[in-house]
Amino acid sequence: MQRVANCVLRVNNQILMLKKPRRGWYVVPGGKMEAGENIKDSVIREFREETGLHIQEPELKGSFTFIMKDEDTQTTVQEWMMFTFQSTKYEGELLEQSEEGELEWVDVDKVLEKPMAEGDRHIFSHILNREDQLYGTFVYTTDFKLIDKEMDPSRLK
């Protein structure tokens, strides 16, 4: 199973986002964990590679499972886990151009208006408005249509 770590960098009421070229969807910087790498080291390394910035004191805010299913057969074709952190401090200079897409500081109140995967919209909504951790599972079709989601049941009480 693939593992991914990413980070919401929130500074001066803005979030650093990455607009991916393939779909034009916005994400926060991050990427695949390397074998044997812990999630905190991974998010720091991936964030720096994609942005040029060294995030400080990242805190884990969510752990998620993503499942992609063939729409016709309902068989799982891909599954991965994502660990989402948040930080409010960084050092370094932002890259003028990232190999992963366009970097953009987005006002917090505009984040949810950006085009993105529907599961990411749920994650952002939680992280931008709450302090506690979120756990969830998102099920997509192979063309990234969200067909099911399950959030930590304790959050629904």
Describe the protein.
This protein has 157 residues and is of the alpha+beta class. The protein has a single domain (2-156), classed as Nucleoside Triphosphate Pyrophosphohydrolase (Alpha-Beta Complex). It contains two helices and eleven strands. Strands 1, 2, 3, 4, 6, 7, 9, 10 and 11 form a nine-stranded mixed beta sheet that branches. It has a two-stranded antiparallel ribbon with strand order 5-8. A hairpin with a 4-residue loop joins strand 10 and strand 11. The mean pLDDT is 93.
Chart the SSEs and their pairings.
Blueprint: E1 2-11, E2 14-19, E3 26-27, E4 30-32, H1 39-51, E5 54-56, E6 59-69, E7 76-87, E8 89-91, E9 102-107, H2 118-129, E10 134-141, E11 146-151
Parallel strand pairs: 1-7, 6-10
Antiparallel strand pairs: 1-2, 1-4, 2-3, 2-9, 5-8, 6-7, 10-11
The total of beta strands comes to: 11
Summed up, the domain count is 1
Instruction: Report the radius of gyration as a whole number of Å.
Output: 15 Å
Average the pLDDT over all residues and give the rounded result: 93
CATH topology (fold) name? Nucleoside Triphosphate Pyrophosphohydrolase
CATH homologous group name:
Nucleoside Triphosphate Pyrophosphohydrolase
Terminal Cα span: 31 Å
Estimated share of beta-strand residues: 35-45%
Shape: globular
What is the top-level CATH class? Alpha Beta
What is the ordering of alpha helices and beta strands?
Answer: EEEEHEEEEEHEE
